[in-house]
Each structure stands twice: as C-alpha cells, then as structure tokens.
C-alpha cells in the first residue's frame, strides 16, 4: 500500500472530502441538542482544530470539557484524526440558520408539542432576526391516517434563478414519531437582499438634476427677455381703448 506522501494529489483531495463529509455528518448528529449550524477543520503540524458553530456552546463542550473529550476519542477511532482539538463557537443570530431552525422544530415536535404552534413560533423568531422571508414545510402524519403537507410562509421566497442560488439557505430534518416519520424543510432568505423587483430612488441623482435646472434658470440674462417695440405699444393701447368702448356699449 502506498504511503500518504506518494499518494496522487487527486486521491488526497477525495480522501479529505470524504473525511470532511463524515465529520459534518457525525457532528450534526452528536450536537443536535446544542443547535448545530456547521463545522470547519483546519490542520496544523501539531493538531487538527475542529471548530463547531452551534447555538449553545456550553452543551457542546459539557461540564469540565467532558463532552468534547468524549467526542475527540470517537473521532480518533472512527475517522482516524490523530490529535483533534474541538472548540465551539456561538452563532450570532441562530434563527437565521436553517439547520438550527429545523432542529428546533424537530426537537419540539418530538416532545409532543403541536406542530402549528411550533411552526408559527419559529416563523416569528426568524423574521424577528431580520430575514426577508421564510418558508417551513412539514410533511407526515399529524394525527390522521393519511400523510399530508403543511406550509407556513412569511415574507419573500425565491425558488429559482440566481436569487435562489445566492440568497436562499435550505435545510432538511427528520423526526421519528409513533405514527411515522415527519419531515421538516426550512428555507430562509437572507437579510438585506434586494430583489429584482425592488424600486430604488436615487436621491443623489435627483438632487443633481435639480441643481442643474436651477443653475440654467439663473443663467438666463435680461437681454434674452423679449422687448415690445414702441410702434406695437401704441397699437396695443388703441386696441385696448376700443375694447373698453365696446364693453361699455354692450352694457
């Protein structure tokens, strides 16, 4: 078997990708109660630093670091990471993360809470964080024999095109209930997104046009004002007197 140094570069990339995928899958499963958002791994000559982004870092680390120590031992055995160091970081706005929102809904449904109450609660908290739009879709059996899908929406949701690729975050979570599996799908449109139908008023451009019009009006000199010749002034006075006489006769 060839050593790691003589391994072709493409095989090394594939192997690293597999390790990252397994690490993400494992950390998502083990840190579900902490509100998992994502994981990053950076290798140094001394150790491999694994940064986990969660809603509650204290749950991830555990009392006295016991939970993180147990996770490190599992990573050594399962994924072959020789010297892992786990650190947990808190997500600034957890309810803008679709993974955290999906886990939040799944946990509360698993505890027996009504799905509509849970969905509307999550909907309000996501919009309160500043999201432009959110969609929650729950599918499964909700106390009936036949499965159905329930949708909860607020704000704007993009479903195709470049706006969907760049501005929409998507996550799926499943929760096993006595009546069967319930699927939770969450879409969130990031804050500060300006859609293609947005109207933008350019105040600077309007002010520039106003200043230009004002300067043009002020540049008009008195010489450009049309003056009435003296001959026409006399004719206009006679015409005015004739009109006055005709109005008096009409009276």
UniProtKB/TrEMBL annotation:
Has keyword rRNA-binding? yes
Q: Does the keyword Nucleotide-binding apply?
A: no
InterPro entries with a match to the protein in the record: KH_dom-like_a/b (IPR015946), KH_dom_type_2 (IPR004044), KH_sf_prok-type (IPR009019), Ribosomal_S3_C_sf (IPR036419), Ribosomal_uS3 (IPR057258), Ribosomal_uS3_arc (IPR027488), Ribosomal_uS3_C (IPR001351), Ribosomal_uS3_euk/arc (IPR005703)
Q: Which GO terms describe its molecular function?
A: rRNA binding; structural constituent of ribosome
Which keywords does UniProt give here?
Ribonucleoprotein, Ribosomal protein, RNA-binding, rRNA-binding
* Any one of the GO CC terms: cytosolic small ribosomal subunit
Report the CDD domains cross-referenced here.
KH-II_30S_S3_arch (cd02411)
Residue spans making up a coiled coil are none
Domain KH type-2 stretches: 23-92
Per the UniProt entry, what are the Gene Ontology biological process annotations, in alphabetical order?
Answer: translation
Q: Which family would the database say this protein is a member of?
A: Belongs to the universal ribosomal protein uS3 family.
Q: How does it assemble?
A: Part of the 30S ribosomal subunit.
Outline what the protein does: Binds the lower part of the 30S subunit head.
Its protein name is: Small ribosomal subunit protein uS3
Give the organism the record lists.
Answer: Candidatus Korarchaeum cryptofilum
Name of the encoding gene: rps3
């Amino acid at each position: 078997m060839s050593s790691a140094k003589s391994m072709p570069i493409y095989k090394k990339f594939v192997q690293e990708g597999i390790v990252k995928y397994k690490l993400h899958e494992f950390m998502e499963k083990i840190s579900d109660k902490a509100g998992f958002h994502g994981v990053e791994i950076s290798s140094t000559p001394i150790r491999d630093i694994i940064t986990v982004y969660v809603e509650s870092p204290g749950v991830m680390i555990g009392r006295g670091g016991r939970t993180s120590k147990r996770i490190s031992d599992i990573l050594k055995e399962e994924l072959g990471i020789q010297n892992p160091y786990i650190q947990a970081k808190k997500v600034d706005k957890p309810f803008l993360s679709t993974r955290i929102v999906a886990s939040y809904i799944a946990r509360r449904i698993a505890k027996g809470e009504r799905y509509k109450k849970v969905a509307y609660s999550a909907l309000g908290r996501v919009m309160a964080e500043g999201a432009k739009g959110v969609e929650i879709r729950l599918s499964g059996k909700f106390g009936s024999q036949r499965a159905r899908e329930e949708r909860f929406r607020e704000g704007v949701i993009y479903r195709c095109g470049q706006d969907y690729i760049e501005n929409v975050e998507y996550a799926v979570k499943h929760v096993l209930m006595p009546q069967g599996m319930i699927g939770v799908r969450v879409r969130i449109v990031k804050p500060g997104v300006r859609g293609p139908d947005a109207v933008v008023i350019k105040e600077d451009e309007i002010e520039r046009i106003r200043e230009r019009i004002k300067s043009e009006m002020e540049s008009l000199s008195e010489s450009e004002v049309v003056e009435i010749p003296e001959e026409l002034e006399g004719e206009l006075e006679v015409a005015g007197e004739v009109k006055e006489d005709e109005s008096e006769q009409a009276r």
